[in-house]
Design brief:
It is built from 13 helices and 12 strands. With 403 residues, the protein is an alpha/beta fold.
């Protein structure tokens, strides 16, 4: 069905032979996309499938879910970036058309707030789906949403096995997407956020740990949201449905397996953060003693000034790339961690322990926010939590893109 599915849509085809007429060539087509709700269309002849993409707008559906947000000024694009090992990694980008931009751009900002969604596990593909909360709370304001199809998912036949015994490649894929977005001038680091739920929370939790442990090389996000994440890989198999995931994550009771699992256990990675290094603390900047220096040369001479400027401390500071958060006082991303008290799959202790360690080890209480839905149940995200997530992101990404 790939030839008849536009970018950002899924197409499911049911032959009428599955129902009554064994000789019928008619098919039912079920379509759903990021910008279009689910529709059911009837085609009398399966040969028309080749024309489905071009004639989609002219085919009246038998049934359609309601449109809950205006998508007429939104476009869906597919892009690729190159991961650290040379693998091409796809991602999907939802953005406003050029003449319908974010209000911050209209008021002088050059980049809109941008959110990347990650998963990367269990061979699960992030397929196009129509989301009212995404449309109304994020896209309708002119923000950008990106879906990162990192390894560990099921987008390609080998995608899952590629990361099954090497989780690092999933994280490198995610970082490559973030860097590509900034390099393509879609947004800047301070207005870029990432989010992930369940195993996606595991991915984002690891990205946070890498940013804290590796310094400026991995400081790629202004905000992060971890929803119902699997974060303590040493004890995940002892709670709720965790024991059924050992084929995906491994057995932490095996000393050899645990040594490998520990490297990508978000809770334990946080414990490895070096607290003695000033860049890991809130006020990391070195103390500076300023003295007067006399330098030969005439700065009023244009040719001499070109040479003098290269070693003029005041002007060198002006050349510092301020799009990298390490150049600012508070470079760490703002973090929101959410959980559900009666989650029947991922126990909320993962999130509770993770937040406690974030605050205890890094002393960044001002940068870390925790929300636990005490009324919800099951491994689902309530509308309240979704609304909170987007409100948090709008507030935390409402910052100046410094150049």
């Amino acid at each position: 069905t790939g030839s008849c599915a536009p970018v950002g849509e899924t197409v499911h085809i049911l032959n009428e032979n599955n129902f009554d007429d064994q000789n019928s060539n008619a098919v039912f087509v079920i379509r759903e996309g990021y910008l279009t709700p689910e529709t059911l269309t009837y085609l009398p002849d399966a040969a028309e499938l080749a024309l489905l993409r071009a004639t989609a707008s002219s085919l009246p559906p038998l049934y359609s879910q309601p449109h809950t947000f205006d998508s007429t000024n939104l476009v869906c694009e597919q892009h690729f970036c190159t991961s650290r090992d040379g693998t091409r990694v796809p991602y999907t980008l939802l953005r406003p058309t050029s003449n319908h931009t974010h209000t911050s751009i209209q008021h002088g900002q050059s980049h809109p707030p941008t959110l990347i969604q990650f998963y990367g596990g269990f061979g699960t593909s992030l397929l196009p789906a129509y989301s009212t909360s995404l449309g109304r709370c994020w896209l309708s304001d002119g923000n950008i949403h990106i879906i990162g199809h990192i390894r560990g998912g099921g987008e390609y036949p080998h995608w899952h096995t590629a990361a099954l015994h090497n989780r690092t490649v999933s994280l490198e894929d995610a970082e490559a997407i973030a860097r590509d977005i900034v390099a393509r001038n879609v947004t800047c680091v301070t207005r870029l956020a990432c989010t992930g739920k369940s195993h996606g929370g595991y991915t984002v939790g690891n990205l946070l740990g890498r940013s804290l442990n590796e310094g400026s090389a991995s400081q790629l996000f202004g905000a992060m949201v971890i929803q119902d994440g699997v974060l303590d890989m040493q004890k995940y198999h002892r709670h709720l449905a965790g024991s059924s995931w050992m084929g995906e994550y491994g057995n932490p009771d095996d000393p050899e397996e645990w040594q490998d699992m520990r490297r990508t256990s978000p809770y334990h990675v946080l414990g490895d953060v070096d607290q003695t290094t000033p860049t890991r603390t809130r006020d990391w900047r070195p103390k500076v003693l300023v003295t007067a220096v006399t330098r030969d040369g005439n700065p009023d001479d244009p040719e001499e000034w070109q040479d003098i400027r290269r070693t003029s401390p005041y002007h060198v500071l002006g050349d510092v790339d301020q799009t990298t958060p390490t150049r600012t006082r508070d470079w760490r991303p703002k973090v929101l961690v959410t959980a559900v008290t009666r989650d029947d799959r991922v126990h909320p202790l993962h999130s509770r322990k993770f937040v406690a360690r974030l605050n205890d080890r890094l002393a960044v209480a001002k940068d870390v926010y925790y929300w636990e839905d005490v009324n919800g149940s099951g491994h689902r995200t309530s509308s309240d939590t979704e609304a909170l997530k987007y409100a948090f992101l709008k507030r935390m990404l409402n910052v100046t893109c410094e150049k």
